[in-house]
Amino acid sequence: MDRQIEAYAKRLKLSWIREHYHEVEESDPKEYLLRLFEKEVANREERKINLLLNQAQLPKTGGSPYQWEHIQIPQGIEREQVLYGDFISEKENLIFYGGVGTGKTYLTTLLSLNAINRFGSCVKFFTVAGLVNKLIEANQNCTLPKFMKQLEKLDLLVLDELGYIPLHKEGAELLFQVISMCYESKSLVITTNLQFGQWNHVFGDPILTEAVIDRLIHHSHLLVFKGDSFRYKESLLHN
Ligand SMILES: Nc1ncnc2c1ncn2[C@@H]1O[C@H](COP(=O)(O)OP(=O)(O)OP(=O)(O)O)[C@@H](O)[C@H]1O
Ligand SMILES: [Mg+2]
């Protein structure tokens, strides 16, 4: 009988039940069935979240509480809506602008974790340089449409470090394609050390730059990160 139960559970893709049904102790059959279903659903949720966390490829976080005093948050969005990823359901974008070590990547990572855990959002973190390399590679291998389809499935795309490295023409155009594809269909979080006026240095072409900024700032919130580098402060503490 065990074998048959396991075979049916496998066929029905009830993997928790298949492995653990005999561990549940309930004399009432309804209670027993309820327990099994509850466990199966909880297990599925957990696996889904783990899969989303793996796919997102977020940087590691230290776990220290996030300090907000140095961040200017514009009207129209609250701290909690940023941190807990509420802007994602509205398909809004966030742009984090500020100097090195001011917590842009850290906040991006925290809000991504929250969005995955709270809403089961599909998130992917890239550095701009990393994404552009992938796009160029995909373009050369004729796998660009497939790669774009994967990006289309996301709820939130993170582009970290815009401005750190200038892009070549092909890279800039491919990045523009991604930003256009995201427009009004998903959320972007972009971190940058450059004001909009300087984005031309990244994209290398004023018309393309204008087109990028135009798409981005529609439905966007610009958060400005001020102050000194936390890395610097931390290194002072440890010396
Ligand atoms: N608001 C914050 N509260 C607490 N710790 C912070 C905060 N911001 C940054 N830190 C600490 O400083 C480190 C560096 O921050 P982070 O990598 O987010 O900076 P960044 O703005 O992305 O810098 P860069 O532009 O150089 O990439 C973090 O890993 C974290 O340990
Ligand atoms: Mg960073």
From TrEMBL:
Keywords: ATP-binding, Nucleotide-binding. The keyword DNA repair does not apply. Pfam families: IstB_IS21. Residues 90-223 form the AAA+ ATPase domain. PANTHER family: ATP-BINDING PROTEIN RV3427C IN INSERTION SEQUENCE-RELATED, CHROMOSOMAL REPLICATION INITIATOR PROTEIN DNAA. Belongs to the IS21/IS1162 putative ATP-binding protein family. This is IS21-like element helper ATPase IstB. The gene is istB.
